[in-house]
Amino acid sequence: MAYALLFEDNVRRWIRDSSGLSREGRVRLFLNIDQALRDRADLFRGDPQRRPNPELPLLTLDIVLQDPPGSQQFRVFHLVVNDRAAAMGILHIVYIDAD
User: Fold this and answer.
1) What is the DSSP string of 55-88?
2) Would you say residue 1 has pLDDT above 80?
């Protein structure tokens, strides 16, 4: 199933203002999140290891990104996704931070 992704305002703000990524890196992060979740979220949703608390509609996802491209600098971004509305085809990215 293909999902629509909704980014909470705090997530968009963090990526724009606090991520420390270049402009190209920010664009690539959004594209990687989109690619990982839009068409493949069911794989993540079905993995109990990704659910810190099975009673909550939250799952975790890590994305590794090289920025700037071609450098030796890699960062890991940790996301929390609320899939309560997944039956309606909607996933909410509610939190992000990075190592």
Assistant:
1) TSSEEEEEEEEESSTTSS-EEEEEEEEE-TTGGG
2) no
